[in-house]
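Notes on consecutive records. When two proteins share a document, each keeps its own sequence and its own C-alpha cell line. Never mix them. Below: protein one.
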Amino acid sequence: MKKANWILGMCAAVLFSGCAAEPQKKETRDVLRAEVLEAIAFFKEQDPSIQSFFDNAWGYAVLPRVTKGAFWVGAAGGRGEVFERGRRVGYTTLSQATIGFSFGGEFFREVIFFRQKQDLDRFRSGEFAFSAQATATAVTVGAAAKADYKDGMAVFVMADRGLMVDASLGGQKFKYAPASGK
C-alpha cells in the first residue's frame, strides 16, 4: 500500500510540475484547437440548453480531455483554451489532486463559464483554484437549463471514457497564459 501511494505521489508530482499552458508547437496548438471545437460541439449536442451559457457568458474555458486516475490518492490533468466573448484569448492547464475513497481512471471534458468580466479576470489573474466536485454539473439533456452560476462560474463536466469510483476530497488548480499569436 505504501509503495502504491508513493508511486501515485510521484506521478502527481510529475503531472503537477506543470506543462506550459500554451502549447509550444504549432501542431500541438492545432490539435488542441480541433479538440476544443469538438468538445464544444459535443456539449451542445448532448444538452442543447447549454447554448445559452455559450451565448451569454462573458467568457469560458474548455478543457477537451482531462485525464484522471486514482488509487486512494488521485491526480488529474488537462489543457484547454480560454475564450472571451466567443474569441480565443488564451490557454489554461488544469491539475487536480484528491485523497479519499477513489479507485480507477477516466477521461472527462470540462467547460467553465464566467458570468462577468471580473469573473474571467479572476481566472486569468494567475493561479486559480476551486473544488470542482462540489460545483460541477454533469451534462445530460436539460441539465444546463436547471444550472446556474455560483460565485460567478458555472462548471459542466462530461465523462468520456473510463470507470471510476470516487468519494474523495480535493480541488482543481488552473494556470492561464494569454495566446501569444504564434
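Protein two starts on the next line and is unrelated to protein one.
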Amino acid sequence: MKTEIECVPCFVRQAAEAVAFTAEDSARGETLLRKLLREIADAEWQGSPPVMGQRIHRIIRRELACADPYCELKDRMNRAAARLLPGLRETMRAQPDPREAAVRMVVKERRPS
C-alpha cells in the first residue's frame, strides 16, 4: 500500500496525540509537533503508511526520551478490561454454550451512534 493524501490527517492526528501524551511542557510539545508536521510535509510518499508512522514515533521517542508514548493509556485500558473480566466470565458461564457466548461477545456488532 502506498501513502495517499487521505493518510495525512491520520499522520497528523498520530503525531499530535503522541506528543500530547508525553510532552510535559506545552512549548516543547508545540516545537516537536511543528517538527513532525514538517517531517510529514517533506516526506516521500512512495512508502507505506506504517513507514511514516514509524518515522513519526521514532522522532517522538528520541526527542522526548520516551520509550512508549501510549504506555500510560495502555495500562489504564488494561486495568479497565481486567475489572470487566470477572463479569464477562460469569455471563459466559451462565450461557448454554459458554464458548459460543465468548465468541459472540468478541464479535458483537457495533452499530453507529
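For the record: Residues 5-64 form one domain.
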